[in-house]
Amino acid sequence: MAPLLEVRNLETHFHTQDGVVKAVDGVSFHVDRGETLGIVGESGCGKSVTSLSIMRLIPSPPGKIAGGQILFDGEDLLALSDEEMRHIRGNRIAMIFQDPMTSLNPVLTIGRQITESLELHMSLSRKEAYNRAGELLHMVGIPSASKRLDNYPHQFSGGMRQRVMIAMALSCNPELLIADEPTTALDVTIQAQILELINRLREELQTAVLMITHDLGVVAGMTDRVTVMYAGKVVEEGSTREIFANPRMPYTIGLLRSIPRLDEERGHKLNPIRGLPPNLIDLPPICPFSPRCDYVEERCLTQTPPLRNVAPDHRAACLFDISMETPIPELKLEDQGV
Amino acid sequence: MTVSAYDSTSGENLIEVKDLKMHFPVTRGIIFQRRVGTVKAVDGLSFTIKRGETLGLVGESGCGKSTTGRAILQLYRPTEGEVRFQGTDLTAIRGDELRKMRRKVQMIFQDPYASLNPRMTVGDIIGEPIRVHKLREGRAVRERIEELLGLVGLNPAFASRYPHEFSGGQRQRIGIARALAVEPEFVVCDEPVSALDVSIQAQVVNLLEELQDKLGLTYLFIAHDLSVVKHISDRVAVMYLGKMVELAEGSKLYSMPLHPYSQALLSAVPIPDPRVEQQRRRIILQGDVPSPLNPPSGCHFHTRCPIAIQKCQEEEPPFVDYGDGHFAACWRARESGELMPAVARQQAEELAARIHADIMKVKGAAD
């Protein structure tokens, strides 16, 4: 069966005074029905721009989807008219954002904001939509839900606003839910509540989820497969178990080594990735991670390594067979004056 | 009763905090401001920090952890209580005397974008405290600035640049250099890595550890990220609504938390390993943190505590030692470890059943 969402060679560029920023540079991945795919990466790696591109919410200018295809249920979203896209956005694909305060309208009641899409997409009457909005709020765990419909966003706490966002997103039974850093702004106990809720709803409703986050812990607990992004490119992808047990891209290895773990023994030292992510303007055709890589060789500086199969259902964009066990060559560190 | 965590007998304490309270008035009206309430941001903390130690302070937004750090440094003057630094009560001194003490106690701020003056060069930012405290003069200031930049892993030539030319991690290094410029003994690190990307966080955490070894610093490390706090701290204190609920050696707190809130907090932290994650059972707390304007009676946590009993509503539990300096403020601390897993399982099942019923209802209405 064809995947629910298939992104092929997506390129999203931003035109700035300093040059063209290739925020997303030839990204491909797919999401099957009912599965959860995680996209991980640090600030500026293009993960949010990818999700906004799928929703066709890239501000233009300065942004522009310069190439590629986004096939949703076999249909290229980039070829649709704005009118056709509106029938898909919020209806068949829904999105929850990182900051629930700025993504809710402060001058409309919560009830009105939920009923708006119900009336639009599900053609419910105002009364029916209002009742259903109450049920949705109850479903996401908001106490005395029907009374809270007449409240404004500022009367809700951060966690409650995120629940409202989830209720809105799920109001039209979407086939795909895009969650862009849904818990980054929340405290850890509230994060646990929200992740648990997303997990339950996903199981019950069989919604496919595209989870975008920088938190490897969230990815480990929530996703079936992972796509790791760096400098606008996919650098590793595979099943979540495989990626965490046997990462093959030096960037992923570096990330896993650099984070402290709650269950680690004391005294172990963190191994940070040195340096900074590259500037995305005029990126030369080399491995984008090579300036920070411990295993860099001359060949890395002559080409952009393609994604290649390194194990069944596991691909990495590295020319060499590097794993967690590969010793770090000492000489190279000095060569680069680190 | 809370005095037990305050052990002033040992001579190696650098910081001794006793019954620290920081209350903020809430007023209404423009000209005639009526006091309509009090936010008890910090409400009776007692603890000590040994020389060379790192004490971690964790808790969620609004629990009073940053206020505690600021009240210790006298950036807020505490409402009540004592803060002794090398025996001197900082709350009792002011003016020149306080300024002299400030040299010994410094702070690293959370937001590396807001805490550096954009109109000053890096050299001026780091040099200002040196000049104010007259630690060096003339050319020696310049040399000291370059030495400090080298110490935090930046190129000494960066002294003539402006903050906007640097990334978040580099700015945080500048903030650290500024704090170290006055040769402090005690540094409050207020969420120093929260604004940074994961790969950069590790760089800054390692730098702070190296500097501690090199300069013999004592840290109060405030953060909401428990993994980072556990990594860097010798002892960890957990705060909830202005109170300290647990204080113990890092490894002990994580292996055997006594307070239900600590247990929930620890179980909520995701671990970057799918094999571990699939086995774990989270304790999901219900609801949000109550307002500090009107905190619950008795134990502040009883409104969200899955194992609260009548006594928790009525009486505030004392902060007592349960052995080897493992302090907790809970009436059921001895039995919480056994009770909580069962409660967690029951809650998870109830939640699943409730969501299932709701979804069926919503679906039925849609069809």
TrEMBL record, chain A:
It is a peripheral membrane protein. It is found in: Cell membrane. Residues 5-256 form the ABC transporter domain. Pfam families: ABC_tran, oligo_HPY. Keywords: ATP-binding, Cell membrane, Membrane, Nucleotide-binding, Transport. GO terms for molecular function: ATP binding. It comes from the Bacteria. SMART domains: AAA. InterPro entries: AAA+_ATPase, ABC_Ni/Peptide_Import, ABC_transporter-like_ATP-bd, ABC_transporter-like_CS, Oligopep_ABC_C, P-loop_NTPase. Belongs to the ABC transporter superfamily. This is ABC transporter ATP-binding protein. The lineage of its organism: Bacteria, Bacillati, Chloroflexota, Chloroflexia, Chloroflexales.
UniProtKB/TrEMBL annotation, chain B:
It holds the Pfam family ABC_tran. Residues 15-266 form the ABC transporter domain. This is Dipeptide ABC transporter ATP-binding protein. InterPro entries: AAA+_ATPase, ABC_transp_ATP-bind, ABC_transporter-like_ATP-bd, ABC_transporter-like_CS, Oligopep_ABC_C, P-loop_NTPase. Belongs to the ABC transporter superfamily. GO terms for molecular function: ATP binding. Keywords: ATP-binding, Nucleotide-binding, Transport.
